[in-house]
Structures are given as structure tokens and as C-alpha cells.
Write a structure and sequence with these properties.
The complex is a heterodimer of chains A (488) and B (68). Chain A is mainly α. In chain A, 72% of the residues lie in helices and 1% in strands. Chain A has a two-stranded antiparallel ribbon with strand order 1-2. In chain A, a hairpin with a 2-residue loop joins strand 1 and strand 2. The relative contact order of chain A is 0.10. Chain B starts with a helix and ends with a helix. Chain B has 68 residues and is an all-alpha fold. The N terminus of chain B is likely disordered. Classes of the chains: A mainly alpha (488), B mainly alpha (68). The interface between A and B is large, with 48 and 42 residues.
Chain lengths: 488, 68
């Protein structure tokens, strides 16, 4: 077993690069689709042109990053299929047809997005039709991440009796239980709201940068107002995330306990460069909540657009304080203490930043925009880094299988048939040892008791299809041993 | 945001790269006849095609629940 080298870079870091790059752009593209539609509808209903203009400019940015995200996704597929062919074969076995639908959705989204932007000024007489075209992006984006989240969820929680449906019906390219795996729903909910929140704060951050750069009052008003619109949408989405996140981690605790404890205890790659990335992400989320509440509390008495009444601001603060007390009881009091410290400190900082700029939220927009970007990156990283690294596990791509006899000939101009076979092992393992060694690479031995004794011939064949590397002789011995009901 | 702030976004000599339209006070709706017909037709046809695709995909996903 040797990881396939790629210019000296470990394969998992190649995937990490493509994965995180894709997350940063793809999540933004999905969230921005929603921001654009909301801004355009508000502009139309209020007959305020600046919101429509903001929507149009944001949509242009969207067209650009959608292309980058799509090309990046192709790079990710190339890297996965090239560096981890076994992993990719297994994913395709169970998700071939969802991938086909995903490809159709890419086509639908790219076309709708292009038409929506480039026909913007040609349809002022058919504004509702144009808005409807934009609204169409939302179900398409929703379905697109629906499928990707199912695959992402499967990689962490492979499902009820891992591919049981495939065991019954053979390799079919679609597996209902793999698609609707235990963590799918929570991952999908969390990512959907997180994308909107991330995109909203990102665009607000962009408005903050423009506010720093312009000196023209009209432009300042434009960026201040549109930044607040974007900020409000993002904040509404942000409020749902700690709640969904709690239930998501609860699912992981039950269905992916190894990953859950890796994340909670900062084991393995979760602990990166001396930093526990999981806890850092949580502290940043708390800082975002605090800064946003500081912003709203500072503006609660003003009559400016997109301000919230004071009772609502303090009500939200009280609710999340109670929530974090409950989290402290479930997790640790250190978690409660530090999140409250970061939230309170960030609240004061947020109020100060707005006061310092005489009511302008430029610095606060930028501050939360950066925090939002960091939390999305850290969240994506932690979910992948938390997955257990079993060498032969079908849903994990930590290593790629290269037959031992070929390892020393990799990248040399040698034909496979010219490679000498390894000499047979001197000592042959007995059947029980074979079972312990091969079966336990992917699952506990308890699972063996759930299968019928007269079905072992078929089950062993399917396991070999999944990647269990057995010779014909070994498979026969294992089948005979299990069919006879002997101990292992 | 008062109404005055939304109006008169004139670019000045100090801003050689005007990026905001001059008049943002008016929401520039116009009569449907003024839109180019080819553009309206293109978007309507695409809208229909996209809805058909959406219905097809949703049907596939629904059927996938029963015919795994």
C-alpha cells in the first residue's frame, strides 16, 4: 500500500487544496444566487433602483466565480479519479446516476445564470419574467448541493448497513440508502444556510472595502445601504447555524463516532500546526454573532434602513446565551466560557467600529466578511480531516492501492506482464486469521453475525467487488469457514 | 435612508472611472413593447425548457425512492 506520489506532494493535500478552493468559490456562488434574487425582488417591490443595480453587479461577479468554481470542480474530479482510482470507482458504483443529474444541473445553472445577467437591461418591460428567471436559480442550486451533500454525507456516514441495497441488487449506479445516509439531511441544511450566510457577509465585506476606497457621497450611500441589505440576509441565515450544527454533531456522534471524537478531541489532522481548527472555527462563529449583535444594538435606536428594534437584538442575544449554556452542559464549560468571551469581546469591538466610523459599518463589514470566509474554510477542512483513515475503507481516499509487486516499478517503462510476481508467502494464514485481517479493515466483526450462513458465497463476492483483496483460494476458505459457522 | 441619498448619483471629475449610473432615483421600468422581441422569446423558451428539466429531475428523484 503506497500513496501515489504527485510531484512530491502528498495526495491528500492535493485533494485538500482542490476541495477547499472549490468550497470557497462554490459555496459563494450558491449563496450569491440567493442574495441576488432577494436584492432584485426588494428593489422591484420598493421601486428602489440601487438594490436592482447591486443585484446586477453581484450577478456579474457571480457569472465569473461560477465559471471558476466549475472548472475547479473538474480539477477535483481529475485529482480524485487519478490519485485515488479505487475510491472513485466505489463512489461511481453508488452515485453514477446522481452524478449524471449533477452534470445536467451544471448545464441548467450555467445557462440560466448567463441569460439572467446578459438579458438584464433587455427585459425592463418584462421585469417579472426576468425576476422569475433569477428565482429559477434557487431550486437548481438547491438540487445541485442536494446531490453533492449526499455524497459528502456518505463519505462520513456510509449509511444503514453500508450499501445494503447494493448487496441485494448488485452494482447499479444508484443506491437510495447511500444517497439518504444518516448525516445527509443535517449536512444539507447546514450547508444551505451557511452558503447564504457566507455569501451575504462576503458581499457586505466587499461593500466595506469599497467604502474605504471611495470618497463620493453617493457611492458611500450606495455601498452602505447595499452592504446592510446583504448583511441582514447573511445574519438571518447565520442564526440557524449553531442550532443545525448541534444536531449535525449529534448525528455524527451516533453514526460516525470515530469522526465525532476526532473532531471533538482535535485528533489527527483536525489539530493542524498546533491549532485545533474545530475550536477555532467555533470561536470565530461566536465572534461573528457578537459583532453582528453589536452592530444591530448600535443602530437599534436609529431610523436607518435594515436596523432591528432593540428588544429583538437583546432577545436574540439572550437566546444564544442560553443555547451556549446548554452547549456547555453537553460539552465542556471551557467551550461555554471561551465562546462567551469571544462573543462579548466581538460585540464591544463591533459597536466600537461603527462608532469610530461615525455610523458607517465599513470596518465591521470587512471584519465579519473575513471571519465568515475563515469559518467556511475551517468547517470544510474539519469535516474532511475528521474522517477516520482506514487503509482499505471504501469511502475514504487516504491511500491508493498499488499492488506490492508493482510498487518499485511505478513510473518506469516496464510492462505489467514483465514484472516478476512476489514469491508465495511461506506461512499460510488460517481462515479465521484471514477473516480477522480482511473484514475488520472496513467494519467490526460483529457485522458478520447479521448475515445468513447460506449466503456467504455471494457476500464474499460482493466484498471483493468493494475492494477486499482476496485471492480465489482465500475467498473459498473464508466462505467455507463462515458457512460452516466456525469461530473467527 | 432618506430619499435624497438615493438620488443624483452624478460622477464628478474626481472620479474618472464612473461605475454608477447617473440617475438612480427612477426605477427604469418601461412598457413591454419596448423590449426586443428576440430577447423576450429566448428567455421564455429557456424558461419553459428549464422548468421541464426541473420537473423531469424531480420526477426521477421521486421515482428513485420507490424503485431503488
Amino acid at each position: 500500500m503506497t500513496p501515489m506520489p504527485f510531484m512530491g506532494i502528498p495526495p491528500k493535500w492535493i485533494i485538500a487544496f482542490f476541495g477547499l478552493f472549490h468550497t470557497s468559490v462554490g459555496s459563494l456562488a450558491i449563496g450569491i444566487g440567493f442574495i441576488v434574487v432577494v436584492a432584485q425582488i426588494i428593489g422591484y417591490r420598493k421601486r428602489v433602483f440601487r438594490y436592482d443595480l447591486f443585484a446586477k453587479r453581484t450577478q456579474l461577479f457571480h457569472v465569473c466565480i461560477y465559471n471558476i468554481g466549475t472548472i475547479n470542480a473538474i480539477g477535483l474530479v481529475f485529482a480524485l479519479s487519478g490519485l485515488f482510482p479505487q475510491f472513485w470507482v466505489h463512489i461511481m458504483n453508488q452515485f453514477f446516476w446522481p452524478f449524471v443529474i449533477e452534470e445536467v444541473l451544471f448545464f441548467l445553472l450555467a445557462t440560466t445564470l448567463t441569460f439572467h445577467y446578459f438579458f438584464w437591461d433587455k427585459l425592463w418591460g418584462h421585469k417579472r419574467l426576468h425576476i422569475a428567471l433569477g428565482i429559477l436559480l434557487i431550486p437548481f442550486f438547491f438540487l445541485q448541493i442536494y446531490i453533492i451533500n449526499a455524497i459528502g454525507g456518505f463519505m462520513l456516514t456510509p449509511g444503514y448497513q453500508e450499501a445494503e441495497a447494493t448487496l441485494r441488487s448488485g452494482i447499479i449506479g444508484y443506491d437510495f440508502r447511500a444517497l439518504y445516509n444518516p448525516s445527509f439531511l443535517m449536512l444539507h441544511l447546514h450547508r444551505s444556510f451557511a452558503n447564504v450566510s457566507y455569501a451575504g457577509f462576503f458581499m457586505a465585506g466587499w461593500c466595506g472595502i469599497r467604502l474605504y476606497l471611495t470618497k463620493i457621497k453617493e457611492k458611500k450611500d450606495y455601498y452602505e445601504d447595499c452592504g446592510r441589505l446583504s448583511f441582514n440576509i447573511a445574519f438571518a441565515a447565520l442564526l440557524s447555524l449553531p442550532i443545525i450544527g448541534y444536531f449535525y454533531s449529534h448525528v455524527l456522534k451516533i453514526d460516525a463516532p470515530d469522526a465525532f471524537w476526532n473532531i471533538m478531541l482535535g485528533r489527527g489532522d483536525v489539530h493542524l500546526g498546533g491549532i485545533d481548527t474545530w475550536w477555532l472555527k467555533h470561536l470565530m462563529v461566536a465572534a461573528m454573532l457578537g459583532a453582528a449583535l453589536g452592530f444591530y444594538s448600535r443602530l437599534s435606536r436609529s431610523k436607518e434602513s435594515f436596523s432591528l428594534p432593540g428588544f429583538l437584538v437583546y432577545g436574540i442575544a439572550a437566546f444564544y446565551f442560553i443555547f451556549y449554556v446548554a452547549m456547555g452542559m453537553v460539552m465542556t464549560w471551557a467551550f461555554f466560557f471561551w465562546t462567551v468571551v469571544f462573543a462579548a469581546g466581538s460585540l464591544l469591538l463591533g459597536r466600537h467600529l461603527v462608532s469610530f466610523h461615525q455610523g458607517s459599518a465599513r470596518a465591521l463589514f470587512l471584519y465579519i466578511g473575513i471571519l465568515s470566509f475563515c469559518t467556511v474554510m475551517l468547517g470544510g477542512y474539519v469535516r474532511e480531516a475528521g474522517r477516520p483513515r482506514f487503509v482499505d475503507r471504501i469511502a475514504h481516499y487516504d491511500d491508493v492501492y498499488v499492488p506490492e509487486e508493482r510498487q518499485q516499478y511505478l513510473y518506469l517503462p516496464v510492462k505489467p506482464q514483465d514484472i516478476p510476481r512476489l514469491p508465495a508467502e511461506e506461512k499460510e494464514e488460517d481462515a479465521a486469521q484471514l477473516i480477522q485481517r480482511h473484514c475488520s479493515r472496513c467494519h467490526g466483526l460483529d457485522r458478520l453475525r447479521t448475515y445468513a450462513r447460506d449466503d456467504w458465497d455471494r457476500i464474499v463476492r460482493v466484498m471483493r467487488i468493494y475492494g477486499t483483496r482476496l485471492s480465489d483460494r482465500e475467498a473459498e476458505r473464508i466462505t467455507a469457514h463462515l458457512t460452516a459457522g466456525l469461530e473467527y | 435612508m432618506d430619499k435624497k441619498n438615493r438620488s443624483g448619483l452624478n460622477e464628478t471629475a474626481s472620479d474618472p472611472n464612473p461605475s454608477l449610473p447617473e440617475n438612480q432615483e427612477v426605477y427604469p421600468l418601461r412598457s413591454p413593447e419596448e423590449d426586443p422581441r428576440w430577447a423576450v422569446r429566448t428567455v421564455k423558451i429557456w424558461f419553459g425548457v428549464a422548468l421541464a428539466f426541473l420537473a423531469f429531475i424531480l420526477t426521477l428523484m421521486l421515482l428513485g425512492v420507490f424503485y431503488d
